[in-house]
Amino acid sequence: MSTGTEPEGSSRSDEEWERFLRDSVAGAADAPKEPSARAREVAKRLRAEPGRGPEGWRSHTPARPRRRTGWYVVGLLVVLALIVVALAPERVRNLVTGADSPPLAAQRPTADQPFRGSPAAGWASGAAGIAVPKAEAVGWMSAAEVERALARSRDFLVASGLDRGVLRGERPEKAIALINPHQKDVQHLLKTAFRTPSEKNDPLLLFSRFRPSRAHLVGDVVKTRGRLTYREGERGALQVTADVTFVYPVTRADAVGDDEIVRTIIRRELLLSWDDPEKVTTEPGTFSIVSYKYDMTNGGCGTPSGYFTPPFGADRRSDESGREVDPYDDSKPVGQGGSSGDECGRATRS
Q1: Most buried residue, 19, 20, 119, 222, by CB count within 10 Å?
Q2: Domain identity same for 11 and 132
Q3: pTM (two decimals)
Q4: Number of domains the chain contains
Q5: What is the predicted pLDDT for the residue at 6?
Q6: Do 274 and 132 reside in the same domain of the chain?
Q7: Domain span at 295
Q8: At what angle do helices 69-87 and 89-97 cross, to 10 degrees?
Q9: Cβ-contact 230, 241 below 8 angstroms
Q10: Could you read off the pLDDT of 43-52 as tens digits, one per residue?
Q11: What φ, ψ does residue 150 adopt, rounded to 5°?
Q12: What are phi and psi of 275, to 5 degrees?
């Protein structure tokens, strides 16, 4: 508060100001005092900005709290963008690059990119796609022995489903050498399946083979995805379960240039028993086969021939009359998908 007779920041009306001038000239005793320079300045500003009150020189107006709604909106937009990228990465890539790529399933495979347009394009190649768990002691085996058994179990999958000679129709000698020679039912299968294949004794139950005169593999890569698991079985045996999907890109044997490429997809499940030689007749380094089954897509159907017979051209179109099958759906047990008997499944994607 000022010590003067007039509160600082006050102002007088235009009528008072005119009366002041008249009384001053006339020498009136009760003439009002001349306003201070600040008062005149404030009065001038008020006349220029009607409706706004004066602000005291010592007064302070606290700042209004700033709302943070903008940051919440930005955060929400970022979350929505991340969801879109996760659900549709291909479309986001196209928007960023300006590309107009067709859907994944519509992308045609080529000799240089035989897995183009396939879910298997991002899979590992060969044995790298078969996961092997950490070994621990089980039954009659120490952890080190379990580790060796798991490695040899994977060796069998490589020798039976990835060996180039076997895929070209050769006899799978390396794979057969890992099977217990004293297991009579499997040895009977091995003796008859290659000579006179039948539904019961078919080499495709255990091995992947293509007839060289009909189909050739494209490139040097077979895509795989699967794993080994193990537990203790009967009489303290180590039981190893293999559940692995193999994707083989093939073309006609007489293909010229960039001809039609078909992907034959096989999902195998094998149950192998590494038995205690003191309880079961076996040979060191070999296992017995407890069970075997597989699902096949784009591998042919009908009377067993001992080879996969991928459909090309008109044959492929006739095969598409069967029930729809998703060969990459591993949520179902093996044996409930693919082709069976005389029925051919139509792959929804390959």
Answers
A1: 222
A2: no
A3: 0.69
A4: 2
A5: 43
A6: yes
A7: 115-347
A8: 110
A9: yes
A10: 566 566 555 5
A11: -65, -40
A12: -85, 155
